[in-house]
């Protein structure tokens, strides 16, 4: 069933979009990531212009993250106080990111920037997560099946001022690192159309020292407000949010997130991370090849002669 997307100006199969939304929703629920880092490149692959994919995908992340976080609230695995600190940084980063995005759009360079950002970030994050997950699995086998909690003892984070107590995470640390992590994720949300979970989750575990069980829920909680704010800025400043595309992705994403949170309960943290790392690497390779290989059509005309 073909459906015309007015802002993207392309016709796409509606069931394909629902399926993509559902698949990314499952990942969102399982891994605590918004899923945008996979969904946005998938939208590129089916012919959606990068500027529209980025702005609209931020919208879909709001719904799948909200759906996922409800399940975590029921299990009390959300550190609300930490989430609010991360959100404060995220809103600042999102505002800055949209300014950069609009400037590059005016120069006509935004499509290339978005794709390059994806190749670099997915490559680095995927490789680091894969190596770390393999090491964690090896250690857990040596330790007789119980993986050591990846929590650092005293680090530079504990030496910083403006400390705050985060009871749900059992932490007493400076608010500076969470705010900085939030700013980075906000910038990524605006430029790449991602919730930033693929950077947020490792940062919360290894930099902030949060227990893995509260990381997923807190990450999703933080993502909701930041991506909603990003969508609003994109919609009002550069008009690249496609409502038809967003609704189809939303429906699939909400259903998928509920399924994903149930699947996530049955898998070990190390297994989840290695699966996510493999997916990230595969998408990165595909995007990289698209940038390097000569396209079938060397020239393409945007809206030639009005149609």
TrEMBL record:
Keywords: Cell membrane, Membrane, Transmembrane, Transmembrane helix. Signal peptide: none annotated. Pfam families: TauE (PF01925). The chain crosses the membrane at residues 12-31, 84-106, 112-131, 171-199, 205-229, 241-260, 272-293. It comes from the Bacteria. One of its GO terms (cellular component) is plasma membrane. It is found in: Cell membrane; Membrane. It is a multi-pass membrane protein. Belongs to the 4-toluene sulfonate uptake permease (TSUP) (TC 2.A.102) family. This is Probable membrane transporter protein. It comes from Leisingera methylohalidivorans DSM 14336.
């Amino acid at each position: 069933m073909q459906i015309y997307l007015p802002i993207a100006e392309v016709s796409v199969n509606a069931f394909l979009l629902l399926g993509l939304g559902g698949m990314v929703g499952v990942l969102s629920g399982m891994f605590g990531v918004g899923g945008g880092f996979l969904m946005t490149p998938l939208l590129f692959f089916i012919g959606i212009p990068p500027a529209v994919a980025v702005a609209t995908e931020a919208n879909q992340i709001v719904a799948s993250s909200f759906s996922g976080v409800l399940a975590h609230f029921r299990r009390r695995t959300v550190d609300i106080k930490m989430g609010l600190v991360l959100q404060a940084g995220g809103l600042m980063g999102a505002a800055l990111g949209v300014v950069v995005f609009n400037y590059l759009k005016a120069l006509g360079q935004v499509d290339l920037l978005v794709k390059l950002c994806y190749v670099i970030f997915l490559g680095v994050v995927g490789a680091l997560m894969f190596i770390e997950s393999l090491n964690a699995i090896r250690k857990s086998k040596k330790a007789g099946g119980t993986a050591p909690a990846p929590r650092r003892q005293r680090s530079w984070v504990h030496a910083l001022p403006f400390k705050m107590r985060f009871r749900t995470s059992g932490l007493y640390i400076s608010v500076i690192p969470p705010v900085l992590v939030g700013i980075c994720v906000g910038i990524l949300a605006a430029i790449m159309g991602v919730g930033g979970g693929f950077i947020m989750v490792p940062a919360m575990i290894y930099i902030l020292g949060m227990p893995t069980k509260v990381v997923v829920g807190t990450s999703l909680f933080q993502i909701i407000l930041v991506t909603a704010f990003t969508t609003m800025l994109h919609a009002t400043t550069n008009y690249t949010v496609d409502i038809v595309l967003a609704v189809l992705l939303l429906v699939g994403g909400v259903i998928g997130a509920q399924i994903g949170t149930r699947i996530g309960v049955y898998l070990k943290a190390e297994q989840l991370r290695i699966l996510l790392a493999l997916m990230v690497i595969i998408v990165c390779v595909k995007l990289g090849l698209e940038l390097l290989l000569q396209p079938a059509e060397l020239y393409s005309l945007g809206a030639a002669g009005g149609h």
